[in-house]
What we know:
single chain, alpha/beta
Amino acid sequence: MDKLRITGGRPLNGEVTISGAKNAALPELCATLLTAESVTLTNVPRLRDVATMRLLLDNMGVQSETHGERGGMSFQAPDSLKPEAPYELVKTMRASVLVLGPLLARFGHAKVSLPGGCAIGSRPVDQHIKGLQAMGAEILVEHGYMVAQLPAGKTRLHGARIATDMITVTGTENFLMAAALAEGETLLENAAQEPEITDLAEMLIAMGAKIEGHGTSRIHIQGVDRLRGCTHQVVADRIEAGTFLCAVAATGGDVILRHARAEHLDAVIDKLHDAGAEIEAGDGFIRVRASGRLKAQSFRTTEYPGFPTDMQAQFMALNCIATGSSKVTETIFENRFMHVNELVRLGAKIQTDGKVAVVEGIDKLSGAIVMATDLRASASLVIAGLVAEGETIVDRIYHLDRGYDQMEAKLRGIGADIERIK
C-alpha cells in the first residue's frame, strides 16, 4: 500500500496546473449513456474514481478509448448495452448511483447496486428513488440492489415537479439526466447549485437537451426524444484549487494556479483573504501569496455557494498553525471530523463536540506517522505535513488517489519535499 513521505518547512513557489473536476467528470461519464452516438470528454482527471467509473461503463458494454495528452476520452454506448451496475464495481464509489437515471431514461430499466465510497457519513439514495418514482419509475430495493423499470405499456419517463427534502448534488444530477429524455417538462425545486451541476447541464445542452435555470435552485428541463453526441471539456476542479490555495497559505510562498476558476471559490478565497493571504485572480488563474503565520478563521460548511464541506479539513489544517483560535462547524456530513485525531498526532490542539471543532492555533506541528481516513482528510494531512517540523508519513493514500490527480508530483513541482513510497 502506497504512502507519502513529507519533510515539512519549505515554502511553495512556482506554477501548478489544476486538473478537471472529479465531481464533474463522474456524472459526465454517466451522461454518455444517454445516447448511442460518440461522446468525447476532454480535461478528464487521472483519478482512481474515474478509472472505476470507466470500468463500470465498459462492463455494461460501453466502448471507450483514451486519446490526446489533455485527458481526452471518447465513449459510445450501443443500444445492446446491459443496464446493470454490479456490487463489485459499485462498492468503492458512491457516485456510481449516477448511472441509474440515464439507464432508466434511455433503456427503460436498470439494476444498480447500492453504492459505497468514503465513510464520512450517511448519504442515502432515497431522494434519488423518490424523484425517479415521481417521473413514473417503479423501483424496488432488494438484495442490495435498486431494481428500476417503467410501468407496463410505458416507453419513457414523464416530466414531474421534484422538490427534494434536502439539497442533494448527485440527486440533482440524476434528475437532470433522466429528465433530459423524459416526456414533458420537469421542474427541479431545491436543486443543488454547484458549478459541477452547471457544467453537466452545459454538456447535456450540447447533446441537444433543453435546460434552463442551471446554477440556481430552480431548474426547468423540457424532455426531448433523443440526444446526440458532443465534445465537452470538464470544468476545472475547484476543490483541488482550494486545496493548493490552503497549502500555499499554510507553508508560505507565491504560487500561480493555472486553469483555476476564482468565481467557484468565493467563500474559500474570502476566508483566506481575511486570514492574511494575498489573492489575485484573473481569466483562468489564481495567484496566492503568503508569509508568516496567518490569522485563524472560523467558518461553517454549507451548500454551494457557501463554504464547501470538501474544503473543511484542508482549512482546518491551516487553522492549526494560525494565530488565535477558530471554530469549525460541519453541517453537511455527521462523520467528517475523522482527520482531527490524526492532526492531533502532529501536535494540533483541537477539541470536538458534535458538529463543532475548536482549534487553538500553535507555533508549529511536528512530523509523525498518520493515517488518511477519507479523501479530503488525506489532503488535510498532506498540508499539515508540509508545515510540520521533520518527517511525516501519510498512510492509506489510496483515498487521495480517488480525487487528486498526481498531487505529490504537482507539489514537488512547486518546491515541496514529498515522495510516494511503497
